[in-house]
């Protein structure tokens, strides 16, 4: 999705017309990204916790 590009025109009443929708999408995107990176790199830092 285009989270950081200029928004296209939305019809009044659509979900994209609400300003908090775009902010919430960005927050969820970054939270999922951080979680995914943490899970993918777990074999590298997991040894510190289980030794």
Automatic annotation (TrEMBL):
InterPro entries: Transprt_MerT (IPR003457)
A Pfam family: MerT
Cellular component terms (Gene Ontology): plasma membrane
Coiled-coil spans in chain: none
Keyword field contains Transferase: no
Transmembrane residue ranges: 27-50
GO terms of molecular function: mercury ion transmembrane transporter activity; metal ion binding
Annotated organism of origin: hydrothermal vent metagenome
Membrane topology, as annotated: Multi-pass membrane protein
Keywords recorded for this protein, A-Z: Cell inner membrane, Cell membrane, Membrane, Mercuric resistance, Mercury, Metal-binding, Transmembrane, Transmembrane helix, Transport
Protein name: Mercuric transport protein MerT
Locations listed in the record: Cell inner membrane
């Amino acid at each position: 999705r285009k989270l950081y590009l200029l928004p296209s025109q939305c019809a009044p009443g659509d979900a994209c017309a609400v300003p908090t929708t775009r902010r919430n999408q960005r927050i969820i995107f970054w939270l999922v990204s951080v979680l995914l990176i943490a899970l993918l790199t777990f074999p590298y830092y997991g040894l510190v916790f289980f030794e």
